[in-house]
Amino acid sequence: MTHYDYFVIGGGSGGVRSARIAAGHGAKVALAEKSDLGGTCVNLGCIPKKLFSYAADYGASLEDMKGFGWENIQADFNWKTLVENKNTEIVRLNTIYQSVLANAGVTIINGHAQLLDEHTIQINDQTITADNILIAVGGKPRQPHFAGAEYCGVSDDAFHLDHFPRRVVIQGGGYISVEFAHIFKGLGAKVTLLYRGDTWLHEFDHEMVFFLKEEYLKQGIDVRFQSDIKLVTNERNAYQVHLNDDKIVECDFVLSAIGRVPNTENLGLDAAGIETLPNGQIKVNENWQTSKDHIYAVGDVSNNAPLTPYAIAEGHILADRLYSKGRVRDINLDLVPTAVFSGPPMGTIGISEEEAKEKHLDYKVYRTDFRPLRHTLTSNSERTFMKLIVQKDNDKVIGCHMVGTDTPEILQGIAICMNMGATKADFDRTIGIHPTSAEELVTLKE
Predict the structure, then answer these.
(1) Exactly one of 145, 163, 360, 434 is catalytic; which is it?
(2) Is 434 a catalytic residue?
(3) CATH class of the 344-442 domain in this structure
């Protein structure tokens, strides 16, 4: 029986970072992963989705080029080429993760890890013990359960379709559904986006979400709220999507993106005495400890923010606390920027106006929406939206929200400012870079 100081279950971004840092501090570390290293983000999430999003953006740019003098533009999109090139990049990243762990001295074990008790793990035919255990197994797409669900795909499937679907129905109201609507529309498909509620992306500022919805409608995306799938049938070489309002939409691919669930199947949580929440997530405290003090959980499997950079930060800090002898990374986990790679992309940092109201804050709102310079010569009617929420008593910027080209790149810099406690006066006395959309953030007066 082999014993380790630190055993990590799951080779995603959080687990790999934590294992590498712990090994760098001198701990004897092993990591178990049953699939490809890199987890959801590298293999079936952030990276391939962003690559597909770039492809969709290029499609829209072809039309915009005409306003800048480019004539006789002809281009054919090849889905197979995109998928193959994406696969090549993912393999490259898998190899990098493998090298990073091996060079750090981490033992990599390929196989499904199951807890036998609070210190013992079974993998394939190996039995291993460890002083500290980290669970970082991430999540997986929630499966639909209506009649005909077997005809539907989930987000994992969308990256490996044999043929590009010309008509797509997407079910859901979160990041994944909104991003894939942009992807398929930008690549040339007719897209119908369904959500059972009255608005999508609930965690974002509602005014910003409404703005994005209007942009999607202008592009020709068929956005339907208070609409859900009742039944899917396969007829005449196409799928018939029967809705709760008795309407039928015909398509070539149905994507169900109704959320994700923790990937804890056959993990042995009960045998180790680890408490879970009703939604299946592992319950952790502010130190990422589960109901067993020496067993930790980070990333999507736990009840913390389901964001890759957040999981990486969690894993890094945890390894520092356990093995660095006082050298702990300083990072702010309370003010987390995030983006949706929609078309146009949207991003946020800090609180929404709805949250400010709920907390009974005395605040001011500065907002603008405008047609960006790049579209003054095109037929594209896309607009950009920006909004700052400022606390009145100290002038501190407590929320920044944006929809428009380059939003994620712009907001990373704003996140630094807000982490440093920037005020509206700090924004105002900063000289803008002209002509850019970003300069509007330092010239807002209303």
Answers:
(1) 434
(2) yes
(3) alpha beta
